[in-house]
UniProtKB/TrEMBL annotation:
Organism of origin: Crotophaga sulcirostris
Family: Belongs to the cytochrome P450 family.
Protein name: unspecific monooxygenase
Cellular component annotations (GO), alphabetically ordered: endoplasmic reticulum membrane
Keyword Cytoplasm: no
UniProt keywords, alphabetically: Endoplasmic reticulum, Heme, Iron, Membrane, Metal-binding, Microsome, Monooxygenase, Oxidoreductase
Record GO biological process: epoxygenase P450 pathway; xenobiotic metabolic process
Required co-factors: heme
The enzyme's E.C. designation: 1.14.14.1
Topological category with respect to the lipid bilayer: Peripheral membrane protein
Name of the gene: Cyp2h2_1
Organism domain of life: Eukaryota
Length: 159
């Protein structure tokens, strides 16, 4: 039976990123995980319209106009909340002598830089970096894997 492996690849890649960043993977049926994937996928679709691109040039004007860029902003806020919740949980259970993942390592560095007023190691930076890892890693890696599968289907003799 033909099927589209795209969603399976996105789930697998996202879970690997979760494992590295958060030290844990999600069940493929986990509602939080599925919501995160939906938000990221919807943002990828919304970014193709003209309004989000105009928002980059005219944020003060576009902030008051309706359009898909408003939904994009709401989705980013939800993803931020998702990461902030996980960061808060990590802060409660942090063992500085045994970092479990990227978040713990970043939190340790934040603690080391606490006296430095010019430090870039903040919770906001951690949240943004985590979002960047998801956006860059999930989309590009899953698309690369999808294209690799298509090439293997077209040229089965190379396997």
């Amino acid at each position: 039976q033909p099927f589209n492996p795209g969603i399976f690849l996105i789930h697998a890649v996202s879970n690997i990123i979760c494992s590295v960043v958060f030290g844990d993977r999600f069940d493929y049926e986990d509602k939080k995980f599925l919501t995160l994937i939906e938000l990221l996928e919807e943002n990828n679709r919304l970014q193709n319209s003209i309004q989000p691109q105009l928002y980059n040039f005219f944020p003060n004007v576009m902030e008051y106009l309706p359009g898909p860029h408003q939904k994009l902003i709401q989705n980013i806020e939800k993803v931020d909340q998702f990461t902030f919740d996980i960061i808060a949980e990590h802060q409660k259970t942090l063992d500085p002598t045994c970092p479990r993942d990227f978040v713990d390592a970043f939190l340790n560095k934040m603690e080391q830089e606490k006296g430095n007023g010019h430090s870039e190691f903040t919770v906001e930076t951690l949240s943004r970096t985590t979002l960047d890892l998801f956006l860059a890693g999930t989309g590009t890696t899953s698309i690369t894997l999808r294209h690799g599968l298509l090439i293997l289907l077209k040229y089965p003799e190379i396997v």
